[in-house]
Amino acid sequence: MSTYYYYYESLVGKLLLVSDGANLNGIGLPHGKMKRQHELSWVNDIQPFKKPIAQLEAYFRGERKSFDLAVSLSGTSFQTSVWKALKKIPYGKTWSYREVAGYIGRPRASRAVGSANGLNPIPIIIPCHRVIGSNGSLAGFGGGVRLKKSLLDLEARNS
C-alpha cells in the first residue's frame, strides 16, 4: 500500500498532508516538534487531498467549524480516546487538560492527556490547539505557542 503526501500552503504556513489514499493519516505543521517531512518512498500526489484541502481552506476563511473527513488514527486506546475527546471541544472554545481527562473518565490523568495531545497525528482537524493549561496558559503545542494562538484567535474571530 502506498503512502501519499502533498505540501499544502495554508494561512499558517506549509502543512504536510499524509494519506493512505483513502484516509488522512497525518498533518505535519510548519514549525515546532510537529514539523514533518515526507519520506522518499512516499508518492507526491494532490488527488487524495482535494477534500481535506477544500475543508482546510474553508476553516482558514472562518467558514468551517468542524471537519468531515475520513481519517485513520494509529495509537493506544488511551491516545485514541483523547483524540476523540478533542473533537468534542466546540469551535472557538478551549478545555483544560484536566477537563479532557474528566471527559474521558480519567480525572487524574491530566499529564497523560497532555502527552496524548502532543502525539495527535492530525492537528487542526483533530483540534489539539483547543487544549490549554488549567490556569489559562497556552501550554504546549506541537506547532509552537505562536501557531496555537493564531488558530485560537482565528476561531475567536469567527465564533
Q: What does this protein structure show overall?
A:
Helix 3 crosses helix 4. The chain starts with a strand and ends with a helix. The chain folds into 2 domains: 4-60; 77-157, Winged helix-like DNA-binding domain superfamily/Winged helix DNA-binding domain (Arc Repressor Mutant, subunit A, Orthogonal Bundle), CATH 1.10.10.10. The protein has 159 residues and is of the alpha/beta class. 31% of the residues lie in helices and 16% in strands. The strands form 2 sheets. The chain has a 4-stranded mixed beta sheet, covered by helices on one side. It has a two-stranded parallel ribbon with strand order 5-6. The protein is globular.
What does this entry show, briefly?
The chain is built from 5 helices and 6 strands. By secondary structure, the chain is an alpha/beta fold.
Topology record:
Blueprint: E1 4-10, E2 13-19, E3 24-28, E4 43-44, H1 50-60, H2 77-86, E5 95-96, H3 97-103, H4 110-118, E6 131-132, H5 145-157
Parallel strand pairs: 1-4, 5-6
Antiparallel strand pairs: 1-2, 2-3
Summed over residues and divided by their number, the pLDDT gives a mean of 94
What is the tally of beta strands? 6
The CATH superfamily of the largest domain is known as Winged helix-like DNA-binding domain superfamily/Winged helix DNA-binding domain
Helix count from the secondary structure assignment: 5
Outline the biggest β-sheet: 4 strands, mixed
Widest β-sheet, arrangement of strands: 3-2-1-4
**How large a portion of the residues is in β-strands, by DSSP E?**
15-25%
Q: Please write the CATH class name of the largest domain.
A: Mainly Alpha
User: Number of folding domains?
Assistant: 2
Structural class: alpha/beta
